[in-house]
Each structure stands twice: as C-alpha cells, then as structure tokens.
C-alpha cells in the first residue's frame, strides 16, 4: 500500500467515524426530530448545515474544473448558485418558517386548499430530488474508486450503505449535526490546497486575493493577464473574456438562481430554525459559508489552468525542448490516465506533448478514429461493412478538409509550420481538476487525502439531504397527508425509512448504469425547480388573489414547457437518437440552451397562473387571512403537522 | 387601525425588498453580464472590473445584502410591533 493510500484510509475513515458518532448521538426519537430536527437549530449552525447540504459533488468536484476551461463564461455558475440565496432570504424563507409546517408540498396544499395541488408539488419534488441524487451517488462512486483503489461499483455500494444508515436513523436532527462536521471537512479540504497553490504562484496565501495579484516569479505581471496571454498564444480564447452569447449567460444565471431558491431540500432547512428572524439571517450565514468555497473556486480554476499549461508548454512556443516529453510526464498524469479522464496521443510522433487549440482538427481526427474503429468491428463481426466504410470515407474527407484549413488558417498556421498535427491532449475531463490539483502542485500526500475526504463529504451530505426531502414527501405528504391520514407517528417514521431505502436502491442502480446524462440531470433538476416550485411558493406569499386553479395550471405549464424543451434537444427521457433537433445554438429558441431554459418555464408558470386565476373564483376568506398571517413574524410557533 | 398597520408593515417590507433586489440585479446581471465589456476597460488591481464582479464581487455583495435585509427587517418588525 502506498503512503497516499494509507493517508486516504486514515482521513476518510476518521471522518466516517465522526459522522456515525454524531448520527448516533443525535438520532431521531420523534417525527419532529426526524423532519425538522426538533425545530431548535441556531442560525449559524443551520447556515453551516445548509452550506454542506447545498455544496454537492457538483460544487466541490466539478465547478472549478468548469471555470478552469470556460473562464468568464462559467461565472453563471458562481453568480447563479449564490444569488439564489438572496431570493430565498427575502422572498421565501421567513414566510415559510412562519407558516410552520414540515414540508414544501404541505405549504402548497394548505395555501391552495387543494390535495391535487399538494400531489402535483410532491411529484415535482420527487423528480427534482431523485434526478439530483443520482448524480451525487455517482460522485461518491468515482471518488471512492480513485482513492481507495476499488472498482466504481464497489465504491458505489459502500457509499449507498453509509448514506442509508445516517439518513434513515438520524433523520433531520442527525443529518443537521453530521452536515456541520461535513462542512468543516469539505471547506478545509478545498481551501488548504488552494492556499498552498496561491502562495506558490503569486506569493499571496489568500486565494481570493492571489487571483488578482502579480506572479511570484518577479515579472510583475498580474496572474490573470499572464493566463490570458499564455492561453491566447496557444490559440485558446481569452480567459477573462465572454465567448458564450450574452442572452445565454444571462438566462443560465437566472435559471440557476431561481432554481436554487426553489430546491426543496434547501428550503426545508429553514423550517429547522427557532424563529422567523433566525430564518432571515440563517440564509445569510449559509451564504457566508458557501461563499468561502465559491470565492475560492475562481482562483482554483484559473491557477489549475495555468499550472496545467505550464506543465505541458514548458517554454517559448516553437523553441527546442519547450514541450513536455511524453516519457517524462508526471505521476499524476499517469494516475488519471488509468481512469480514462485524461488522455494523450503523440500525433506528430515527436515524442513530446503539444496542448493547444487547433480549431476543428482534433474533433475531425477523433471522428475519423471512431469511424475506423467501427469499420474494424463491423469487419470482425461480418456486419454491415459497406455502411461502415461509407462512414469512414466521409470522416476521412472531413478530416482532410480540416487539415487543409488548419495548414492555411491564419490562426493555426504558425502551429502547422512548427510541425504540430493536432492537439495531443485528446481528453481532459473537467471533473479531475480539483481532485488532481494538489498533485499537479506537488503538495504533500496528506493534502491529497484530505481532498478525497472532502469530496466524499460533499457528495454524502447532499445525498442525505435529498433523500430526506424525498422521504418526507412520501411519508408525510402522500401517506399522512392524503392516503392514510390516521397513520401513527411510529408507522410514519417507518414509512419514511422505507422510502429512503427504495430511493437509495433506485439512485444506486441509476448511478451504476447512468443513462448517459450526468450534466443534463443537474440542468433538469434546476430547470424543474425554477419552473415549478419557486413560482408557486412566491405567488402563495405575495399574491392573495392566487387560487387553486392558477397554482396547478401554472406548475403544470412551467414544468411541462421546460421538460418539452429539454427533451426536444436531448432526446425523450434522454434516450439517445430520439432528439427532435440537433442541440446547437442555431436551433435554440432565442439562442437559449436547454440548461438555461428554466427561466422561460418560470415566466410561463407566472403568466399562466395569473391569467387562469383571474378567470376563476378568488380564494376563500380564511386563505386570505392565512396569507396575511404568514406575512407577519409574530406568533411563529414550532413547526407542526 | 390594526389592518392599516398590517398594510403599512407589508408596504415597508416590499419597499425594502425592492431596493435590495435592484442592487442584487445590478451587481450580478448588470455589472457581471450586461455591462461586462464597458467595465472590463477599468482595472481593479489584477482584475478587470467586469470579470471581478462576475466571479467575486457580486458574491460579496449578496452576503452583505442578506444581512442588511435581516437587520432592517428586524427594525421594521419592532417599529410595527410585530416582532417575536
């Protein structure tokens, strides 16, 4: 066993002992403990737990990688996934806390005096949470398999068992305290390597400031200017400039913001604090703890990109020995090559690696390679070789055309003149940047192991929070609220534990056999939350006139339109080959990508709800009183059912 | 009388809310996206200003905004005698 593996076992093992200990100590005795942690969590603790609940594998593992490769365009994630808390703190959290119930559908059902509305809300909630949890389970599997040296399947099963135990027995109370511990682990794991790397590159140990500082090499050049210059020299687009269309950046940011404010597993966290006042400030505390990671991420992304480029392009472009030799590549590259998440191919046979933007050449070459492979398979199996041969010919023509363009294109000609025949880093996955970062910067093994523990903490905490949201809506909204109202408290707890079990098995199965839609799932979850839950809650508080018919038709219109648009470009239920139109900007409605479409769905929800409610009877008087009561802080008792 | 006071309380809340949401929109969608190119001509240390708002500044403003809202609402609650 290597030293790194020993460190990983120690740190991951110790953190698990801690989580289990806490879950046991704070186990749920009553339904109130189970759903809202007994209702007595302080705003700072709740903020910390919310932050851990919120920052999933996507925030911890993927986001900095997206920033590293997209630069400015990835700002949509930074602003979107933080700005939603402003909306939540001002438009939803205090009023839902005053309302004082256990779940989001319960509010919808009571406010719109309709069991149908409650069922529609439960359906939205389950789809949102389940799609989201699948991605988390996969994140758990990937992290375990890389650092513990087990297969992806084994890693996933271990993760499922662990999540099951503390989500099922601890309930909200156990999860809240576990998440506080997980927050501490994940934020340390994120910032410790960032501090080292920032100090190495800029001499400034604070990553947020290091990003805006000058290089430590004495050149006096700002880090970001240096990065812009280095990558534009290699033909990439400038890091600090916008490349995506303005409308798409705008709509994606808005979708992520209102999706954040509408995510049920985050909203229910605000039911656990003692008062309305605490609910307001708790959102602020949550955002402070989130911002610690979110303001570090741009530095991690930019510095990782610079380190990666500098590792491969070691000197002046075109000078002798200015590129990393294939045989001399560092250990971290070899480690990640094994996982298939980074790949090299010496296209011009010079024994060195060239990493640059070659226009469309690499893609044409990759297509040709794939077509040739398919032809070989067809020949081996005596399949339809004629069709495969035709595809190879077409791909060859395309690759030749790309090569001709490459040799003559003004931007790429200088690379062609050097004898470079295409980008030789044929694959570099966004998701490896954070995990590989400490290795790239040659930090000690205990730091690398700490990052592994942090990644697992991030994925587990969010998975547990989502499972709890699913369990609450099944046992509390569907069984207790609608189908079996006379259920005892004990049976209700049992039902929610069964719901957790089923959800984990389903999520584990989907995580093991992903239908090929990891990133799309996240987009779908946010788009759905933005187009269904957020508008219905907001109108419930801010419009006394909003009624049952308006709420239900609004939710259905918002979710329906968003789903239709996503499926139109991504295939029905994400099945490849069933898409109605290629997923390219030219085909999009007003240039809005499927990921960014939730805002349009939300607008549809608001408009339909408004129009329908004007043509149907106003809500009864007691509902109008309920809305007035929710708007005033005084008299908020403990959350009840 | 009681009803008028409840109405005035809600109006004060909505007014504060509107101010906060305008700031929220201006720093993120305004400075970070719509005015990006104009602000990028201004340099803030090693940052282009538009880029800074998009990746750092708007997040700091969001945090301040929530606490400001919570603090002002506390004052308004007490003024209208609806605090807990």
Automatic annotation (TrEMBL), chain A:
GO terms for molecular function: symporter activity. It comes from the Bacteria. PROSITE patterns: NA_SOLUT_SYMP_2, NA_SOLUT_SYMP_3. InterPro entries: Na/Glc_symporter_sf, Na/solute_symporter, Na/solute_symporter_CS, Na/solute_symporter_VC_2705, Sodium:Solute_Symporter. GO terms for cellular component: plasma membrane. The keyword Metal-binding does not apply. It is found in: Membrane. GO terms for biological process: carboxylic acid transport; sodium ion transport. The keyword Ion transport applies. The chain crosses the membrane at residues 6-26, 47-69, 75-96, 117-135, 147-168, 180-201, 249-271, 283-304, 446-472, 493-511, 517-537, 549-568, 588-612. Keywords: Cell membrane, Ion transport, Membrane, Sodium, Sodium transport, Symport, Transmembrane, Transmembrane helix, Transport. Belongs to the sodium:solute symporter (SSF) (TC 2.A.21) family. This is Sodium:solute symporter family protein. It comes from Thiothrix subterranea.
UniProtKB/TrEMBL annotation, chain B:
The keyword Transmembrane applies. This is DUF4212 domain-containing protein. InterPro entries: Na_symporter_ssu (IPR019886). The chain crosses the membrane at residues 12-36, 51-71. Residues 6-83 form the Sodium symporter small subunit domain. The keyword Transmembrane helix applies. It holds the Pfam family DUF4212. Keywords: Membrane, Transmembrane, Transmembrane helix.
């Amino acid at each position: 066993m290597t030293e790194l593996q020993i460190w990983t076992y120690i740190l991951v093992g110790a953190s698990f002992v801690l989580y289990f200990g806490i879950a046991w100590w704070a186990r749920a005795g009553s339904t109130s403990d189970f759903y809202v942690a007994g209702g007595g969590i302080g705003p700072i603790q709740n903020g910390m737990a919310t932050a851990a609940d919120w920052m999933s594998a996507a925030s911890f593992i993927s986001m900095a990688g997206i920033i590293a490769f997209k630069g400015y365009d990835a700002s949509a994630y930074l602003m979107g996934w933080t700005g939603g808390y402003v909306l939540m703190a001002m438009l939803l959290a205090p009023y839902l806390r005053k309302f004082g119930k256990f779940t989001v559908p319960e509010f919808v059902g009571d406010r719109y005096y309709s069991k149908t509305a409650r069922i529609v809300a439960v359906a939205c909630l389950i789809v949102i949470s389940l799609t989201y949890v699948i991605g988390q389970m996969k994140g758990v599997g990937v992290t375990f398999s890389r650092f513990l040296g087990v297969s992806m399947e084994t890693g996933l099963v271990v993760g499922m068992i662990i999540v099951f135990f503390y989500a099922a027995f601890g309930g909200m109370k156990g999860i809240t305290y576990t998440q506080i511990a997980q927050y501490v682990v994940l934020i340390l794991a994120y910032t410790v390597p960032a501090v080292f790397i920032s100090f190495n590159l800029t001499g400034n140990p604070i990553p947020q400031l290091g990003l805006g500082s000058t290089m430590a090499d004495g050149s006096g050049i700002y880090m970001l200017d240096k990065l812009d210059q280095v990558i534009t020299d290699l033909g990439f687009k400038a890091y600090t400039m916008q490349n995506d269309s303005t409308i798409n950046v705008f709509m994606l940011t808005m979708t992520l913001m209102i999706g954040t404010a509408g995510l049920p597993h985050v909203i229910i966290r605000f039911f656990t604090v003692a008062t309305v006042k605490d609910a307001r400030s708790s959102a602020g505390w949550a955002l402070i703890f989130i911002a610690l990671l979110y303001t570090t991420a741009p530095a991690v992304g930019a510095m990782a990109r610079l380190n990666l480029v500098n590792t491969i392009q070691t000197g002046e472009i075109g000078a002798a020995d200015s590129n990393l030799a294939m045989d001399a590549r560092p250990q971290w590259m070899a480690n990640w090559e094994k996982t298939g998440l980074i790949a090299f191919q010496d296209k011009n046979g010079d024994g060195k690696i060239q990493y640059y933007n070659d226009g469309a050449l690499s893609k044409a070459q990759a297509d040709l390679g794939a077509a040739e492979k398919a032809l070989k398979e067809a020949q081996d199996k005596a399949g339809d070789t004629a069709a495969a041969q035709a595809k190879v010919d077409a791909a060859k023509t395309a690759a030749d055309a790309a090569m001709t363009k490459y040799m003559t294109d003004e931007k790429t000609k200088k690379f062609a003149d050097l004898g470079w025949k295409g980008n030789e880093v044929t694959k570099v996955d966004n998701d490896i940047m954070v995990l590989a970062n400490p290795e790239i910067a040659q930090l000690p093994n205990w730091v690398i192991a700490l990052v592994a523990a942090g990644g697992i903490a991030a994925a587990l905490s969010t998975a547990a929070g989502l499972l709890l949201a699913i369990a609450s809506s099944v046992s509390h909204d569907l069984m207790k609220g609608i189908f079996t109202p006379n259920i005892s408290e004990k049976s209700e707890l049992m039902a929610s534990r069964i719901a957790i079990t089923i959800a984990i098995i389903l999520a584990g199965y989907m995580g093991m056999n992903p239908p090929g839609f990891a990133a799309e799932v996240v987009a779908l979850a946010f788009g759905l939350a933005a187009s269904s839950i957020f508008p219905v809650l907001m109108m419930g508080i801010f419009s006394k006139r909003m009624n049952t018919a308006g709420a239900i038709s609004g939710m259905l219109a918002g979710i329906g339109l968003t789903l239709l648009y996503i499926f139109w470009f991504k295939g029905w239920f994400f099945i490849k080959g069933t898409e109605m139109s290629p997923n390219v900007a030219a085909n999009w409605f007003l240039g809005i990508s499927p990921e960014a479409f939730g805002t349009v769905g939300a607008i549809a929800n608001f408009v339909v709800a408004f129009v329908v409610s004007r043509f149907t009877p106003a809500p009864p008087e007691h509902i109008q009183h309920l809305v007035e009561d929710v708007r005033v802080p005084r008299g908020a008792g403990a959350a009840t059912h | 009388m009681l009803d008028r006071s409840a109405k005035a309380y809600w109006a004060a809340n909505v007014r504060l809310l509107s101010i906060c949401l305008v700031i929220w929109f201006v720093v993120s969608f305004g400075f970070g996206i719509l005015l990006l190119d104009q602000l990028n001509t201004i340099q803030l240390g090693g940052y282009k200003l538009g880029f800074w708002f998009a990746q750092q500044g708007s997040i700091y403003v969001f945090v301040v905004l929530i606490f400001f809202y919570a603090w002002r609402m506390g004052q308004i609650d007490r003024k209208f005698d609806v605090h807990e």
